[in-house]
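[recover] target loaded
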């Protein structure tokens, strides 16, 4: 990223497709994903892509809880 030399250059990590496609198809460990983002100091926006198995509002609250877990 630094080699590009532009402050407008960004990188998007797609946990969903990197987990659901390819050789290692599986379930996303969202807690591990959020923990990793915290460990590398990421503080930008997060847009989880998933299919809720229950009420959408409860699902959103659970994602918020996972994102806030130290």
């Amino acid at each position: 990223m630094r080699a590009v030399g532009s402050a407008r250059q960004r990188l998007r990590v797609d946990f969903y497709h990197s987990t659901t496609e390819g050789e290692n198809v599986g379930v996303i460990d969202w807690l591990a994903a959020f923990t990793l983002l915290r460990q590398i100091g990421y503080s930008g926006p997060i847009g989880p892509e998933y299919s809720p198995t229950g009420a959408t509002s409860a699902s959103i609250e659970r994602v918020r809880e996972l994102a806030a877990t130290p």
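[recover] notes: Residues 11-68 form one domain.
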